[in-house]
Amino acid sequence: MARIYISLGSNIDREQHIRAGLDALLRLYGPLEVSRVFESEAVGFAGSPFYNLVVGADTDHPLPRVTRDLRELEFAHGRAVDAKKFAPRTLDLDLLLYDDLVCAEPVSLPRAEILTNAFVLWPLAELAPRRRHPVTGQSYGALWAAYDKQSQRLQPVDFSWSQASSEPSGESITY
Q: What is the DSSP letter of 133?
């Protein structure tokens, strides 16, 4: 089993698309570990604020299948095939980590945005504060502690989602 971490983001019908993305990931990977949801400004373009979060899951799917599945989920939730990198998104799914794998293909891992974007690092540090970045060797908790928090505006938001469909306890996550 591999431990994966995925960043989710949306700035179009944010609540609807984040919930739909979580539901789809739950169907693919089973129970999810879910960070708080954060609101952040668009980075790299002028646009509406995003909702962002990170989920952790365990999978026996190989890396190429995980990357393909995430891409297909984005398309299924309204992403255009020719979407620009810095543009509004219904659902943006980025694989951040696949265990401690360091690679450039089929996707660059660990994802560079972990070190540069608060909307990735803060929720990742919430889920895996002691886990170490496979290149820098620093824990995500230490990376977040050292991050220049004035460089990007980010705030937790009230958000509720339930993974009751696969959790016997009907666990609900509310922030």
A: P
